[in-house]
Write a structure and sequence with these properties.
This protein is mostly beta strands. The strands form 4 sheets. The protein has a 9-stranded mixed sheet with strand order 1-4-7-10-13-16-19-21-22, with no helix packed on it. Strand 21 and strand 22 form a beta hairpin. It is globular and about 45 Å long. The protein starts with a strand and ends in a 25-residue tail after the last strand.
Length: 178
């Protein structure tokens, strides 16, 4: 027996919803999405078909998870975070496949951050609110700004992994995606 809970005003089309997951009002989850156990999906979220969400993930209000997104366990996604999946979007022109974006275990993405397609946010990394992430973020790094730049390191991460702007996020003044 599945003990997940979906609000009566949610449109949950997927049968792959983990135990004890809570889905709030005005959430739409398409049929092929896979959602883990003990997740909390807050109101006004949209989850497309080719999305995998791990266990114990929190997705705050107003977040859309588009095809190609992989969210590992214990991730926090703040309110109104924007994920993109197409580097060159055009109306009614769809690529054969979408870029895969991965949010690794324990990472946190602050409210209203923008995550461009095809990148990886590393293990336990932290993305500051309002940041625009144009490059992959290494494990344990804290990034802020537009474009996002490394400003520090999460204390409980492996210190052997370098976390500076020269070895991680591109430090050029011009972003790859204008």
């Amino acid at each position: 027996m599945n003990t997940s809970q979906a609000h009566e005003l949610a449109d949950v089309q997927s049968k792959s919803i983990g135990q004890r997951t809570r889905i709030w009002q005005f959430v739409v989850i398409l049929p092929n999405a896979k959602i883990g156990e003990d997740c909390n999906i807050c109101s006004h979220c949209f989850i497309e078909n080719d999305v995998v969400v791990g266990d114990r993930v929190t997705i705050k209000n107003g977040v859309s998870l588009y095809d190609g997104l992989r969210v590992e366990d214990d991730v926090f996604i703040g309110p109104n975070v924007t994920f993109t999946n197409d580097k060159f979007p055009r109306s009614r022109q769809h690529p054969e496949s979408y870029a895969v974006t991965t949010i690794k275990a324990g990472a946190s993405v602050g409210g209203a951050a923008v995550i461009l397609p095809g990148i990886t946010i590393g293990l336990k990394a932290m993305i500051g609110a309002g940041s625009v992430v144009t490059k992959s973020v290494p494990d344990g790094c804290i990034v802020l700004g537009n474009p996002a730049r490394v400003v520090g390191r999460v204390e409980d991460c492996d210190q052997s992994n370098p976390c500076d702007s020269q070895s991680s996020i591109d430090s050029r003044k011009d972003a790859e995606f204008s």
